[in-house]
Amino acid sequence: MKPIILSAFLALTAVPAIACETVTAGDLTIDHAWSRATIGASRPAVFYVEITNAGAADDALLGIATTAAGMPMLHQTQVTDGVASMPHALSVPVPAGQTTALAPGSYHGMLMRLTNPLKEGDSFPASLTFQNAGEVTINVEVLSMRAEGPTCSHAGQ
Amino acid sequence: MLTRRAVILGLGGTTGAVAFMLGLGWWRSRPEAQPSAGVLPVPFGEMAFTLTDHRGNQVRPTDWLGQPTMVFFGFTWCPDVCPTTLSDISIWLEDLGADADRLNAVMISVDPERDTPDVLADYLSNFDPRIVGLTGSLAEVQRAASGFRARFEKVPQDADYTMDHTAGVFLFRADGHFGGIIDYHEDRRFAVPKIRRVLD
């Protein structure tokens, strides 16, 4: 029984999801970078990520760049009187000592003019530009269209 | 001594009740707690629109009478709110188990220009198969939105456009009367109990 459980555990942990990879830059820890599969390349895709700022100084995410899309932008979903809109965000605050999440219904990257359709299981690199930490590149995992986020075994998920 | 304690307890109770009423008043006057300026969606029997579902069938609101129904407005070019809502609805339907089979789950496209029945079918194939997508002429979609007191607006974006739209999920009882709304930013744990209330 024991070896079966152990091998099952190894099978689950042998290939950690890309979205569970962690990248650090100075005081920032960046992980849970994911997107949703798209139908074709004409629809905008989405980009979500979590940024933990362990430092004493505030930082800010100023922009994203990726080969996956010709026009990636930062947006924020806002609901006013029940009506959702997605204004462009000039920057996303990354306050000291806090985790900032680009997450469904909140701040997110909007990837317009996709180079190719995003397929579940694919990944693509995205460069994030921070006011203080500079540029950081992370691999973004493409999950299914109905995914609500990556499942990671480490803390914070 | 006993009297004094009773008075203190009484005062405490009154203060609690006043605080509760103030809390309730605050909640009721919050604009986002109401679908649209405090006007509730009309019953299905009073709505008048004809749309086409993602299988090509004509659908009228009276077709939903006899079963509880949940409806939300969205569009398939929407990267954040709509896939999240469709994913939420898919999870709720699974959580409801067999009860979900006697529930109409409907997405009305606010972007009929791009969302043809075929486009909706392709998109919805990624979510729970019980979700029905509706589209039609802009005029019919506007008639539908007005019955729900929902709003939508085309917003230019780059060389393209996006849609602002009412994001909550409307719940209706089997008799076609409005039974509540699941707000977009509401705690998702309350969703299934809310749906169960219109199922009973």
TrEMBL record, chain A:
It comes from the Bacteria. SUPFAM superfamilies: DR1885-like metal-binding protein (SSF110087). Keywords: Signal. InterPro entries: LpqE-like (IPR007410), Lxx211020-like (IPR058248), PCuAC_sf (IPR036182). It holds the Pfam family PCuAC. Residues 1-19 form the signal peptide. This is Copper chaperone PCu(A)C. It comes from Paracoccus maritimus.
